Amino acid sequence: MTTFVQRLKGFLGQATAHPIGEACGCARPPFHHAQFERAELGEDPFHADVAVDRCKRCGQSWLHYALEDAEYSGSGRWWRAALSPEQRAALKAAEARGFIEAQYACFAGGSYFDSTGFEQRAPIRVA
Ligand SMILES: [Zn+2]
């Protein structure tokens, strides 16, 4: 017999487009490069590094958007937002910043924030 909690966990496991409340380590800071297979999308017009990280454990794709001002130490900052397979397929580097800012929730971190990752809620501003 399936308990309510088991059904709820099954439901949450399918809700891959939302970063909050997931069990997998890819949805919990701190994040490690070894958790992911990275596909680089290149630079956007703001000279950000845009990539898609795919979790090796659960298969969830995450948009990774990283900015750094080379002349300023401690300026590295990044944002990370969950991508559905459809969003992953359609995403272009030039649209990445707008995609992050349109999210209800995402993760951010880096030396600029002095953080290995924390949750941000809308309105999200990338700068
Ligand atoms: Zn995962």
Would you kindly provide a written description of the structure presented here, covering whatever features stand out?
The protein has helices at residues 4-14, 85-90, 96-101, and strands at residues 36-43, 49-55, 61-67, 77-83, 105-110, 115-121. With 127 residues, the protein is α+β, with helices and mostly antiparallel strands. A hairpin with a 4-residue loop joins strand 5 and strand 6 (115-121). Bound molecules: zinc ion. Zinc ion (ZN) is lined by residues 24, 26, 55, 57-58, 60.
Summary?
It is built from three helices and six strands. The chain has helices at 4-14, 85-90, 96-101, and strands at 36-43, 49-55, 61-67, 77-83, 105-110, 115-121.
